[in-house]
Every structure is written in structure tokens, then in C-alpha cells.
Amino acid sequence: MNIRSLLSVGVLVFGSLSIAAQTASKVPAKLIQKSASPEGSQVALTPPMGWNSWNFFHRNVTDQDIRNAADQLVSTGMKDAGYVYVNIDDTWEGERDADGVLHTNAKFPDMKALADYVHSKGLKLGIYSSPGPQTCAGFAASLDHETQDARLYASWGVDYLKYDLCSYREAVMSVQSPEDKAAQMRLMFAAYDKMDKALKATGRPIVYSLCQYGWDAVWEWGPNVGANLWRTTGDIQPSWQSIYSILGEQEGLAKYAGPGHWNDPDMLEVGNGKLSLAENRAHFSMWAMLAAPLLAGNDLPNMTPEVRAVLTNRDVIAIDQDRLGHEATHAYSDGEVDVWTRHLSGGALAIAVLNAGPDRYSTHPFHLSLAKLGLHGTLKGKNLWTGDEIALTDDMPLEIASHDILLVRVQAPK
Ligand code: GLA
What we know:
Oligomer: single chain
Strand order of the largest sheet: 9-8-7-6-5-2-1-10
Bound molecules: alpha-D-galactopyranose
Radius of gyration: 22 Å
């Protein structure tokens, strides 16, 4: 498993150096201990599911792409499987007018009409901003306009905000407290708290997604700024190396997740890049085990039947959406194989056996130790990728292809 590297950031484009009104010394220490707000627990009682534009479209996303995504969520059955949020990531923003009101750019001619369209499909709309002066892609962001922007989102009918640290670090944290890391982190906390209050003040339920790459152990304080989810790592890429590295970074975080507040190992890359079917399956399975938000990020109009089958596997989605919200923990590894377990409602257990190695294991099959999982006897379960019944016994040999996974739901573990 990989060593956590929380200070690595993907792409950050830093903007102008305008300075925030708040200073580190003005942030009361007790703010950091305040309890989670009850309103925050009304949304995202299970990990949010939907689609986000960034992983496939990056900077090129348009209004039409968002409408197409909404159409496709319905026609492919993804909406029925639980995918409801249609999230516009960075690059929708235009300029502010003399009153400070932010306008969309030419790619998004009428955000209210777009929101109405998405809502007319029975779906919800997500949007993106930053606490800094500019977003990661260099567009106008919310610094000193938090209340105004939150009201604007609510007036459009936005249901979800991803709030990405980006230029706030260079423009505010580094400028106001250049030598004091702790003060910088308090500024970051205050910025996220400020937008939470602005969102709550609108009276509209809006899922609040923090994106600051896991800095300062965000899982410890995310709920205190009303976060429903928080990124735990840098940006995901559509490669096995990236996916497996992020998986390793989730160890130890399970206790911080639960209904209304989730660890976010970043959006799905299922169907993107050159991921094999096994890799797509393993990635999706492990994100479900982690109780991760399931935000697809692929080209929905050109999705293959195989990718669609992965994304709409109801049994796997049921693991992710289990109402207890207990995130999986890493039970043990043996050679290149990792075993994770997740406790589910009704006393059930999900067991994931992942072959992270580059080769097939058949010359020396992996032997699953039930004893190491605290289990014994013959466990009857369902193989969630074949749909077949399976009986697990202690030390049983398992052949799992490279980068593939065995995912089993055991109804009555003993
Ligand atoms: C950061 C985030 C990504 C994406 C881009 C947009 O890199 O981590 O998920 O939102 O910004 O610019």
C-alpha cells in the first residue's frame, strides 16, 4: 500500500493576488470545534451519485454537453440506478458586472434554463467554484463574493457545489500568513466555513463538496464546516497506477465517513482512458467499498455496453449506498493481493479481493484466509460481478486476473 502524500496537488493555476478580508488572527479557535450543523445532514445521507464534466471534457464542456449528459443518464438507465447529480465542473464562469454579479461565459448562455432542463428530467444540477479569486482553470471565483454567489446558485436552482481551493492558497493563505502554516490552515477552514454559511443562508438544500486535496486532515474538520464530502487526495487520472495509489491513501479514513459526510477519493474514471474492463470493474468496486461518491466522469453518449454494465451494477451500487455508511477497511494483503471488508446493514458483509499485480495468479493461486477476517466455516454469498452464488471457505484458492477483483456479499457472516 502506498504512503499518503497529501501535499501533492494536481493542476493549480494561480490567479491574481487580491487579499481576503479575513485574517488568520480574526479566526476564533473555537470555530474549529463547532459541531456539525443539522441542516448538513439532510442531504447526502448516502454518498452522492451522478456525473461530473471534468474527467472527460475538462475545459471544453458546454451547455449542450450537460444537456446530453442529462439525457443519457435517463436513457441508459443510470438515473434509475441512482445517478441524479449532473455536475458542471470548472470553466462555466464569465465576468462579474459592476454590481459584482457573476455571469456565465458564452459556453453557458442561460444557466437558469439549463437548470430547468436538468430538473425536468428528474435530475439535480451541480456547479463549481473556488474560495480564491480564480478557479483552478483561471476563471472568476468567489473570493469576497460568497454570499452573492451562493444566492445566485440558489436562484438558478443549483443543488450541489464543489468548492475547490485553487488560488486561495497563493492569493490569501501564503500572502496573509507566509511563515505560519497553522494560520494558513485556519484561513482555509474559515473560507470553507464562510461558503457553508452562505449556502445555508439561501435556505436551499445544496450538497457541499470540499476539494482541497485532503490538506490538513480535512476528514477531521470537514463536518464542522458543513461539508457533505471532501476530497482526500490529489486529482485522479484514468490509469491503474493513479487509481491504485489513491486507494492506498484511503487507509485509516473509514471512521470519518458516515451519513451526510463522506470521504471523496475523487470522481470515477470508469470508461475513460485505456482502463481495461477488469480495471473499470475493480475501480468501481473499490469506490463502492469506500462509500465514495459515485460521480461518473465518462463520455455518456459514446459509452460501451460493458462500461454501462459496470456503472449500473445494482448489487455493487447497493454496497456503496448501504444506509449504515460504514466505509470498508483494509483487512490484510498477501503478496500482490489486497483484501478489504465492509460491514453492511442487516449484519451482512462485503468482501473484496483485489489482485493489484501485473500478472495472473494461477500458477500460485491466492488463498483467502477467513481466519484473518475473524470468520469461520463455509460462508455463502453472492459474487457481485457474475451474479452467481459462491461458498467461501478458509484458505480456499482463488484465481483473480491482473487488476481484477472478486467482490462478494455475504448475508450472514459467522
Ligand atoms: C482541480 C480539481 C479537479 C477539477 C479541476 C478544474 O484540479 O481537483 O477535480 O475540478 O481543478 O479546474
